[in-house]
Design goal:
With about 300 residues, this protein is α/β, with parallel strands linked by helices. Among the domains are: about 55 residues, Orthogonal Bundle (Arc Repressor Mutant, subunit A), CATH 1.10.10; about 100 residues, D-Maltodextrin-Binding Protein, domain 2, CATH 3.40.190.10. Helix content is about 45%, strand content about 20%. It has 12 helices and 11 strands. Strands 3, 4, 5, 6, 9, 10 and 11 form a 7-stranded mixed β-sheet that branches. Strands 1-2 form a two-stranded antiparallel ribbon. Helix 1 packs across helix 2 and helix 2 packs across helix 3. The radius of gyration is 22 Å and the shape is globular.
């Protein structure tokens, strides 16, 4: 069975369900159970905790999971190298991404890339910054869009490529008393109800407000970016959000540049401790070219042609 059983184990952990993993991978549920049981018998310890709410890895299962993911990554790299030797460009690239990139960049990127390399496939993992850092650390993904700099041990172990500087903007209800301003003073977030993302999802804004020496009057915290916009539309507070995220979603809010012009730096990072596969490296090169073209086109349009 080879590495396929490891793929089964990882998919069960990812989905938290034997039944869902069976559906995705094309197995029967008893077949999935048999594969996991055979692995547990071979390893000599339980890998999963089963409950009414689903399944999750045991402590020992958590310990072997990063190693199993690296084995799968190595197997995929071998497949891609063999394909490259044969003159083929084939394989799967696992990409981690956050909302703004997933909505406004990736669809166009992938469509154009696959016209050049139709046999390279993608597995997309969407989450917040905390999710992405975990996926990079345990090699669940080959590469991921991130905001730079990466902190701690992850920053030291991941190779990262800067891509685009994205403005952070104030977002207000249209009827807000300060909606007439041309630039927004950051200190006003201390005096107005503020709607923010959860702490581990909001590195960019927190860096900006710390640098300005202000403390937001946080009234609501939520994980979903577009839910923040919906709450602002209802007049529940103000927020600070990246310009890329707001593209096409600012009709019912007032978007104002911040006085000190803070930004976030979007980058692309390779998984820690794993050599990049040929397909992942090829896609990373394409992403740099694609973003550079997009940025140049936007700058030309903003300058009036």
């Amino acid at each position: 069975m080879g590495a396929s059983r490891y793929e089964v184990f990882c998919k069960v952990v990812e989905l938290g369900s034997l039944t869902q993993a069976a559906e995705v991978l094309g197995y029967t549920q008893p077949g999935i159970s048999h594969i996991i049981s055979a692995m547990e018998e071979e390893f000599g310890f339980p890998l999963l905790i089963r409950s009414r709410s689903g399944v999750r890895p045991t402590a020992d299962g958590e310990r072997v999971l990063p190693i199993i993911r690296r084995i799968l990554s190595g197997t995929e790299q071998l497949t891609q190298v063999v394909s490259a030797v044969k003159g083929l460009d084939a394989g799967t690239v696992r990409i981690g991404t956050f909302t703004s990139v997933a909505v406004h960049w990736l669809p166009g990127m992938i469509k154009e890339f696959q016209t050049l390399y139709p046999h390279i496939e993608f597995s997309l993992w969407g989450g917040d910054y905390h999710d992405i850092e975990q996926w990079l650390a345990d090699a669940s993904v080959d590469l991921s869009f991130v905001t730079l700099p990466l902190g701690g041990a992850l920053g030291a172990s991941c190779t990262a490529i800067p891509l685009h500087e994205d403005r952070l903007l104030a977002v207000l209800p249209p009827e807000h008393p300060l909606a007439h301003l041309e630039t927004f003073p950051l200190e006003q977030i201390e005096r107005n109800p503020f709607i923010g993302l959860l702490e581990n999802s909001d590195h960019d804004v927190r860096r900006a407000v710390r640098a300005a020496g202000v403390r937001p009057n946080i009234r609501f915290s939520i994980k979903d970016d577009y839910a923040v916009i919906a709450m602002i539309e209802q007049g529940l507070g103000i927020s600070i959000m990246p310009e890329l995220l707001l593209k096409g979603r600012s009709q019912n809010v007032r978007v104002i540049p911040l006085e000190n012009h803070p930004t976030r730096l979007i980058g692309l990072a390779f998984a820690a401790g794993v050599q990049a596969s040929p397909c992942a490296s090829r896609f990373a090169q394409f992403v740099q070219q694609w973003v550079a073209r997009q940025t140049a086109a936007e700058q030309k349009n903003s300058a009036g042609g």
